[in-house]
Specification:
This protein has 44 residues and is mainly α. 61% of the residues lie in helices and 0% in strands. The protein starts with 16 loop residues before the first helix and ends with a helix.
Length: 44
């Protein structure tokens, strides 16, 4: 039988699927911006 006085471990909240998708899209967009900047520097 579990000890009622013992605190339960706190689980980390997982990001929602929408938050995870937004994070991935932001990373991809950042990579594209960086690539575009590099190409612009080479063309000038």
């Amino acid at each position: 039988m579990p000890d009622p006085d013992k605190p339960k471990p706190i689980e980390e909240a997982k990001p929602s699927r929408l938050e995870e998708a937004r994070r991935i899209i932001e990373e991809y967009a950042d990579d594209l911006r960086e690539l575009i900047q590099k190409l612009r520097r080479k063309m000038n």
